Amino acid sequence: MRPFQKAAEVHCRGYSRPLQRVITDFGSDVAFGKIPKKMMEHHGISIPISAGQEITESHAQRILETQSWETGFPAIEGVEFLIAEMDGCN
After folding, report:
1. DSSP letters of 48-71?
2. Deepest of 18, 29, 47, 65, by most Cβ within 10 A of its Cβ?
3. What is the mean pLDDT of residues 31-49?
4. What is the residue-averaged pLDDT of the chain?
5. What pTM did the predictor assign?
6. Phi/psi at 62 (nearest 5 deg)?
7. Would you call 20 helix, strand, or coil by DSSP?
């Protein structure tokens, strides 16, 4: 293994953790087809559409696997009123 590859934790045709983070951030904001254009515009890096989709979905799957879901109601009594607001953004 080459010293830079080891230090940067990347391999040939791979994506570093920081790059995966950027791709995942774009993938959570826009359609997968728009990720390559945003990557080129913001970072000057060309990536295929499939890489954006694959990386984003891979991280989403790992997040889903680590979440715990509560399915029952709490044993304690709740509040009489709950006030919530939504701003309508997506």
Report:
1. -HHHHHHHHHHHHHHHHHH-----
2. 47
3. 94
4. 86
5. 0.65
6. -65, -35
7. helix
